[in-house]
Amino acid sequence: MNLSQYTKEFSYNIKLAYPVVLGMLGHTLIGIVDNYMVGNLGSTELAAVSLGNSFIFLAMAIGIGFSTAITPLTAEANAEKNDKKIRTTFHHGLLLCTILGVSLFMLTVLSKQLMYFMNQPEAVVILAAPYIDWVAFSLIPVVMYQGYKQFADGLSLTKYSMYSIILTNVVHVFFNYVLIYGFWIFPKLGVTGAALGTVISRIMMVVFMHYLMKHNVVMKQYFKNFTFKEIKKSIIKKIVNLGIPSAMQMLFEVTLFTAAIWLSGSLGKNSQAANQIALILASSTFMVAMGLSVTAMIRVGHSRGVAEYKNLITVARSIFLLAVITEAFFALIFVVFHNFLPHLFLNMHDPAQALDNKEIIMITSKLLLIAAIFQISDGIQVVVLGALRGLQDVKVPMYITFVAYWVVGFPISFYLGKYTDLKAVGVWIGLLAGLTAAAVFLYIRFARLTKKLVLENSEK
Questions:
Q1: Could you tell me if 430 and 405 are in contact, meaning their C-beta atoms sit under 8 angstroms apart?
Q2: CA–CA dist 367, 423 (Å, integer)
Q3: What sections of 80-158 are H helices per DSSP?
Q4: For the chain, how are helix, strand and coil distributed in percent, rounded to 5?
Q5: Which of 82, 83, 336, 379 is most buried, with most CB under 10 Å away?
Q6: Is the CB of residue 66 less than 8 Å from the CB of residue 246?
Q7: Residue 198 to residue 37: CA distance in whole angstroms
Q8: CA 418, CA 424: separation in Å to the nearest integer?
């Protein structure tokens, strides 16, 4: 195969991916702002937000993973130029996302009791409990937003989520600042203020997205005359059959990283804070791969809709190559700046925090060196997953991700973290092992599946 076959696809892939990447980074920025502003209050507050968010991330993983079912179905219907099918997918998808958002909110509030059995510092748990109550409510608008976003992505209209997230971050920064520190008529609420800022901004995120999409020339036709009479069991079943395995795939990965937060927390608050800083940085660069994963889902779903399987392979491989190049670049940045980056998240001017800061920086710098290596594995596994979702192949990848993360990754994290001197570094070596196993086996699955599709198509 000629390399130019793949590189000529780069410009269109980037055009589709960059709004998704910026939108994803906007989501991450909400977390970064929380961590930066709360980090200035102290390491206990930072650890509380980290612990609280670990519960929220689990629920968000289910919601976001489930909603990805909407994109390939919409892309396929769009390729077939079937407006009725597009509209039906949107309405059913949004209804299911709303129901799921409410369910996840209730489950998260109920599950916070688990904190008391997790060997976490008492001061951290006391601050985390009210934080979880408030931020859990924001799961309803987050999952509804995902319903809108995945639909727009399926139509290759990826910029709307980007615009919505930019506006959301403006709202978030304002409310976070005034409610955490207290300003003008607003009370000083600390960690609870960070939670309220997140809730307000996420409600506005759905409002912005609905308004922008409803006034778009292409999409406004799909907003008219919604009735529950149109809801069909067969369409719900189709979305659920794609959505649940996709949700499980994402849940298996996020629970592995959540387990890393909990393991780090059991090693002490400084290990947990270091883990959180490294995780925020790694998550930020991972968003580029996530953007390319959505691009793979859209383009592969479209190629599947018009049965162009050879082109499908070329498009997918071009996205895989682009992901490897970009993640290798980020890996280099982590290696070069691993001693400097942790300073950005800590209050270096407070003498009372000097001793804690020194230990946090030492641990974080080591974690970033491991993160540099797993950038590439993480990038590959997520773009290949996107391509497989575009093919509407979700059940086998669900089993692959479970084995990679929980049979390979977690036991290594647990043993090296708890029973060796590597501690937090050992936890991250386990993450690297799990991600690498997932990348290898998911790619093998994609290669076999697409080869079979090409052979079957050529025989017709």
A1: no
A2: 11
A3: 83-111, 122-137, 139-154
A4: 85, 0, 15
A5: 379
A6: yes
A7: 13
A8: 9
Token output for 309: 């399987």
Q: Which amino acid is at 336?
A: V
Chain segment 115-157, per-residue pLDDT in tens: 777 667 777 878 788 888 888 999 999 999 999 999 999 998 9
The dihedral built from the CA positions of residue 200, 202, 205 and 210, taken in this order, carries a sign that is negative
Which residue type is seen at 280?
A: I
Residue with tokens 């919601």: 63
The partner residues of 183 in beta bridges, in order of sequence, read 186
Please write the tens of the pLDDT for every residue from 74-112. Answer: 999 999 989 889 999 999 999 999 999 999 999 988 887
For helices 191-214 and 122-137, what crossing angle results, to 10°?
Answer: 20
Distance between CA atoms of residues 21 and 24, nearest Å = 5
Q: Are 428 and 274 in contact (CB under 8 A)?
A: no
**Residue 198, both tokens:** 């997140």
Element (H, E) at 15: helix 10-39
Amino acid type, 224: K
The Cα 103–Cα 168 span in angstroms is 24
